[in-house]
What we know:
alpha/beta
Amino acid sequence: MQVGAFVLGAQFPGQQQGEALDRAVGVAETAERAGLDHVWLAEHHFVSYGVCPSAVTLAALLLGRTRRIGVGTAVSVLPNAHPVALG
């Protein structure tokens, strides 16, 4: 069995956007150290708590910061991405 985590770049009240994204990256790095197999990312648009506008870009960052864990996009808003770039 494989176990993964859903990593949401959520901004809590009183928190800056950069802090929220740093925490999301830290959660993914911790998931790898804990032995999880995957992390899944989501993007959000036009909501106050979501600070990740591109799950693909965050995935690229995580792939550069981790060694073993799988990284995937749980949510990508299709009208906001070119289909070839998303694929």
